[in-house]
Amino acid sequence: MSLSRYPSHPPSDLSTGPLVAPVRRSMLSAPAAGGPFRGGALTRRLRPRSSLASPPASSGGEPEKERLLLVERYRDGVTKRYMSDGNSKLQIRSEKHESPVNAVEDENADSLIPQVIRDFVLPAGFPGSVTVDYLEYMLLQFPTNVTGWICNVLVTSSLLKAVGVGSFTGTSAAASAAAIRWVSKDGIGAFGRLLIGGRFGTLFDDDPKKWRMYADFIGSAGSIFELMTPLYPGYFLPLASLGNLAKAVARGFKDPSFRVIQNHFAQSGNLGEVAAKEEVWEVGAQLLGLSIGVLIMDTAGVKSSYLTLTSTWLIIRLLHLWLRYQSLSVLKFRTINLKRGRILVRSHVAQHTVPGYVVCNEEENILTWERFLHPQIFFGVPMERMLGGKGSSDKVNRLLKLYKNEKYVLFVEQFGSREPTFLVAFKEAANSMSVLRSLWQAHWLQKNWKNQDEIFSWLEDSILALEHGFTDFLEQMERAGWDQNQIILKVPKEPVLVLQHLDQEV
């Protein structure tokens, strides 16, 4: 990208905050022709960059016509139009449509199934993201599971009668009532699994280690509710239901996460065998754990003291959580999620090297949430937030021209002397590689951050660095053993920048 397209003295109204340091003029050196990017100081050549300057005022007295700058689309059918009124003032007009205007979703939409239900019960990208037999199988699997649970309710009543809660010849109503209460407890728990699967189904492919660990934390909370039932026997049903709900939510996180882990193990496509052998390990551990648990329960101290029982449970549960963390820490994924992507780009920006997947997984923190990582990057940000609510049409024009060759728009949100926060909006054609490129640019900006009064000059340097350095980054990724087909950085579904008509008059 040539530097000659950008103005050396942008209008004063484009400043984004009370930034007081002088304008930075060098950050990166351009690499030798054909050579890899190695960083250094980029010598800025002072050239006129008139294409990003404010549009000149009309020489005649006739005002300019309104122009459409871009359109931002949301999944609920809301569309925002960013307009220039011809006097460098920005106008934002919101429109509400009867249905979302995403053309890709419209092509796949079934008029008989509302979009909100499709998103809840079907995988993202259906039907293109699954095989052709998926829906037919699930439609038959649903009544199969219904009949199975009906049988389970009937068997539960029989089991309770067998242990003395009513009988077939006597007070059978007591057994039926107890069975209903017991099944209600299970039903409340199952509702938690329903919500997790429908609402959070897209989380597990990105970070199965984190969600598998959090599943154990949630399950531990459920056990605490169940341990409280002897203290408050009159509240058995609500306490047991809360415990079962928490355990069901934990299972909702655990099962999908572990399936991703199993798929990671099946390097030669032997997923069925890996799952079967895992069952052998699981059942063996279950039998041994049950045996040890019975022996502990048979000791005099545990049988006679509730405090001893809870203390023993707490010690063993803490040991369980520690062992779970250790087991997840040894996993070495080759896929690139946000955490591992940050580690890779940070290493390349700072040291011009890319670590292999073993080192990267060892550095990855399982429990850390994305919002607590630095630099702070927010994806799927509306353009209105980037503009700070009082941007000009010139500012929008400059952003669109600056990112003309990218599938995203990145801007900086600064507050005084604090580290900057990076805001990223994605265009309609954005993909995982677009997210990775925005990560690289944000880390470069954070490394070369200076509190200055010319944000666009800083962004311009980062785009130059991205153009020169990202190719070398991909080459080093390949040499380090990373597969570019395993990048699972998901683009937010909304908002989407769907139109850029910089010269269209409305």
UniProtKB/TrEMBL annotation:
Region (Disordered): 1-20, 27-66
Ranges where the Root UVB sensitive protein C-terminal domain occurs: 360-490
All residue ranges annotated as the Protein root UVB sensitive/RUS domain in the record: 111-350
Signal peptide: none
Residue ranges that the Swiss-Prot or TrEMBL entry lists as coiled coil: none
Biased composition (Low complexity): 30-59
Transmembrane regions: none
Similarity comment: family membership: Belongs to the RUS1 family.
Protein name: Protein root UVB sensitive 5
Protein species of origin: Setaria viridis (Green bristlegrass)
